[in-house]
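Input/output pair, single chain:
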Amino acid sequence: MNDKAKWAYAAAIGGGAILWLVTTEISGKTEAWDSSLYWSAAYPLAIGLAASLGYWAPEKPWRWGLAVMLAQAVVLVMAGSDFSLLPLGLILFSILALPPIELAQFMAKIRLRSEKS
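Output:
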């Protein structure tokens, strides 16, 4: 793994975790997605982060969207949420990872096309 990929992983994981933690702190909710702030700000920022990383590190860009969302899942688990809904939560995180993955791939294609020109 090259240095660019290491930095991208750090940004994706750190960014995803920070978005979840800040949203829970500001909203006072136990889980960030229980707040409208998550849907209006944190989730769009997560998608934007994955897209930016897809452009910056275009090799295997799907991993940036997945890393951002999996980091949020890990923070949710570590925060001691109710584990009875964990399987449902993991399914939801998997679904929520689709837009960041797709946009990261799209931005990687844009980057690669611009490099060919």
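The CA atoms of residues 63 and 99 lie 12 Å apart. The chain is about 80% helix and 0% strand.
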